[in-house]
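tokens incoming
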């Protein structure tokens, strides 16, 4: 007995009718965007804001300010007057491009290399120096009150950004959480979980990967086998894209688009900004031990500040006198902040117990007393 009977003749499957591969159920694409090439030439029509001299000059100033702040912070650390510091040399277009697209009421959740974004949002160079000098008063920003402090643990602020965005959604506020982290952070569960939650709840959050191609001594090729980091969004049902992270116009344009979408209820977005860490990981690192000088010098040709300056000069928006005035102004600003920082009396040792608990647990009360005793107070 046959196990079943058919009422119609089934067509025979011949080799020619059998599909070679099963049909695709989904297809994905990651786009890459850049407006200025490394020499500062426009490779596509520029967005509206980038046609306006004052807008471009503001971006240029912010990147130069970030670089000068960086140099001063490294100098203070080298002379024993600041704690470990993470320079953003060569990466200035990412934080500045991101922050310049945000509204004041949005919330920034930075990692430790985003001082360019913090300065744009009104955090002062003095506050940043206090923070890197180990004084928590530096995280009590006078402006940008609701921005998060620097996050040193890698990627742990990504779930916090999801929480912030969930609060915005529940309160029906038209605000967006913007979370910046590095290429190394994308290997962490915190980031995968954050992307997943943001996708499920369609939250107003923009994630930005500041991909400087290194996580301390781990190069990108050892970090992931994925072709792009932007595609990590896809598994979470989020749109992901890549931009030239040394082109401040591209970073700002992509962030502005993502923010507008999130604000309109369109959900989260992931931007991978591809840049390069020209300096050491931090002042506690010596990158010459794990990467070649020739690799680094080749990357100098792509750095963001010269790129925008070339564009400004070629379009007669910037002259030598403008540059000199800008550098002089910024020097004054940074030197004043450094003097104010050095003149700030350090807090007492008990301050290290002050900022985590409303009421200090008993064991920490005991440790605080012991610390005071050791300090002779
Ligand atoms: C949870 C955690 N693990 C380890 C470290 C030590 N650490 C500091 S930075 C860093 C690498 C981060 O690389 P990436 O995310 O690419 O950021 P980048 O430093 O390049 O800006 C590591 C492992 C840390 N700060 N936090
Ligand atoms: Mg990195």
């Amino acid at each position: 007995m046959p196990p079943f009977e058919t009422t119609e003749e089934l067509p025979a499957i011949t080799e020619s009718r059998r599909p070679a591969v099963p049909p695709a159920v989904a297809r994905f694409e990651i786009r890459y965007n850049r407006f200025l090439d490394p020499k500062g030439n426009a490779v596509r029509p520029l967005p509206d804001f980038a046609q306006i001299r004052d807008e471009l000059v503001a971006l240029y100033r912010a990147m130069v300010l970030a670089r000068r702040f960086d140099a001063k912070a490294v100098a203070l650390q080298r002379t024993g007057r600041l704690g470990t510091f993470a320079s953003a040399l060569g990466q200035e277009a990412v934080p500045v491009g991101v922050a310049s697209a945000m509204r004041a009421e949005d919330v920034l959740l930075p990692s430790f290399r985003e001082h360019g974004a913090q300065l744009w949002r009104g955090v002062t160079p003095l506050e940043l120096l206090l923070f890197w000098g180990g004084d928590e008063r530096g995280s009590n920003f006078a402006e940008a009150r609701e921005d998060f402090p620097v996050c040193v643990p890698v990627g742990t602020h990504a779930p916090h950004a999801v929480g912030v965005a969930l609060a915005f959604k529940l309160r029906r506020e038209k605000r967006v959480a913007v979370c910046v982290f590095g290429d190394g952070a994308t290997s962490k569960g915190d980031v995968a979980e954050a992307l997943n939650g943001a996708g499920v709840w369609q939250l107003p959050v923009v994630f930005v990967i500041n991909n400087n191609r290194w996580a301390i001594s781990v190069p990108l090729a050892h970090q992931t086998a994925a072709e792009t980091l932007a595609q990590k969004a896809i598994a979470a049902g989020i749109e992901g894209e890549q931009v030239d992270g040394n082109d401040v116009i591209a970073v700002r344009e992509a962030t502005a688009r993502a923010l507008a979408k999130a604000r309109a209820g369109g959900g989260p977005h992931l931007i991978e900004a591809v840049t390069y860490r020209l300096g050491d990981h931090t002042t506690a690192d010596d990158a010459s031990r794990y990467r070649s000088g020739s690799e680094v010098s080749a990357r100098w040709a792509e750095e963001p500040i010269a790129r925008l300056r070339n564009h400004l000069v070629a379009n007669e928006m910037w002259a030598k006198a403008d540059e000199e005035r800008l550098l002089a102004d910024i020097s004054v600003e940074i030197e004043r902040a450094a003097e104010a920082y050095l003149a700030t009396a350090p807090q007492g040792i008990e301050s290290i117990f002050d900022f985590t608990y409303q009421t200090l647990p008993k064991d920490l009360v005991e440790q605080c007393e012991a610390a005071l005793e050791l300090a002779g107070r």
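note: DSSP finds twelve helices and eight strands in the chain.
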